[in-house]
Design a protein that fits this description.
By secondary structure, this protein is mainly alpha-helical. It has 2 domains: 100 residues, no CATH class; 98 residues, no CATH class. Helices cover 75% and strands 2% of the residues. It contains 10 helices and 2 strands, in the order H-H-H-H-E-E-H-H-H-H-H-H. It has a two-stranded antiparallel sheet. Helix 1 packs across helix 2, helix 1 packs across helix 5 and helix 7 packs across helix 8. The longest helix has 30 residues. It is globular, with a radius of gyration of 21 Å. The mean pLDDT is 82.
Length: 204
């Protein structure tokens, strides 16, 4: 696959993604009252194997290829198309989070740092305990963990995993609703950022 082919495929992927997101967002906001980010998640599910891959698997594989490329010599090499799309998406996410950080009201957070810490602690402890309890059921029912994994390791892993929040989604919802600069929005973003920092350290 040449560089020109990769560019054409990337433009097709972006066109389909943006058009689908736009259509789903218009319908979701008008008839379901959902935020843009929720509608965009629905659009992502629709373009994945759950819907498009089920209805038109060949088209889905052609547009978003996951299978390796077979060369003329019979060698299999990874398809770079999805790697490029993934890299672009991560760049977009980083830029978006940087813009959210520019609008973060740190002065308001300083006046309510105690409330943010309490909210953050509750957001960590509660899902951690529930995740640890659920891990014992998962450990004894099904093949969720490898045999060499001990029950306590499974509890720590699942408990830490459950404490991680969808911080970019939360930030986007608060921004769309005009709550990012309010006391509620500042506390929510501050607590969620601490939650994610602690949770990723626990998971590591």
């Amino acid at each position: 696959m040449s560089n020109f082919d990769l560019v054409i495929q990337l433009f097709l992927q972006l066109t389909v993604i943006l058009a689908t997101c736009r259509v789903v967002t218009i319908l979701g906001r008008r008839y379901l009252g959902q935020t843009d980010v929720v509608c965009e998640m629905i659009a992502g599910v629709m373009l994945g194997p759950s819907l498009l891959g089920l209805i038109a698997p060949h088209f889905q594989q052609w547009l978003f290829p996951k299978l390796p490329i077979i060369t003329s010599l019979g060698d299999k090499i990874p398809n770079p198309s999805m790697s490029i799309l993934y890299a672009i998406s991560q760049i977009g996410l980083v830029i978006y989070m940087f813009l959210i950080g520019l609008e973060f009201n740190t002065k308001l957070l300083k006046h309510h740092i105690k409330s943010a810490n309490l909210l953050s602690a509750a957001g960590i402890i509660t899902p951690f305990i529930l995740g640890a309890i659920a891990s014992f059921w998962c450990y004894n029912n099904g093949n969720f963990f490898l045999p060499k994994v001990t029950p306590w390791s499974a509890a720590l892993y699942l408990g830490a995993s459950m404490t991680i929040t969808a911080f970019p989604m939360l930030a986007r919802i608060l921004y769309e609703r005009g709550l990012a600069q309010t006391r509620f929005g500042t506390l929510a973003l501050g607590a969620a950022s601490v939650d994610d920092g602690v949770a990723w350290c626990l998971l590591a």
